[in-house]
Amino acid sequence: MNFLFKVLVAAKASSNHHKIPLDIVKHMNFNGSEDWQNLFLKHWKVFLTGTRDPDRKFHDFRNHVLHVNENYWGGAIKAATKWYRTCVDNLKAEKWEDAIYSAGVMSHYFIDPFMPFHTGQTEEEGIYHKYVEWGVLKTFSTIQGIIENKLGGYPDITLSDKDDWIDIEIKKHATLSNKYYNSLIDNYDIKNGKKKPGEGMTDKLLHDMAEIVSRTVIAGAKFFERAIMEAGVSPPRINMTIPTLLASINIPIFWIVKNIEDKAEKKFLLAQAKEYEQTGKVIKNLAEDDKEVRKLHAEEILKITVEELNNRPLNKRHKTNNRTETAKNNKSTDKSTRTKSANKKTRGKSRIKFHLELTDKVGDAPEIGGKTEERLNKVGIITISDLLNADPAKIAKDLNHSRIDTDDVLRWQKQTMLAQRIPNIRGHDVQILVRSNIDTVEKICSFDADKLLEEIDPFVKSSTGKSILRSGAVPDLEEVTDWIEWAKQAR
Ligand SMILES: [Zn+2]
Question: Are residues 337 and 447 in the same domain?
Answer without folding.
Answer: yes
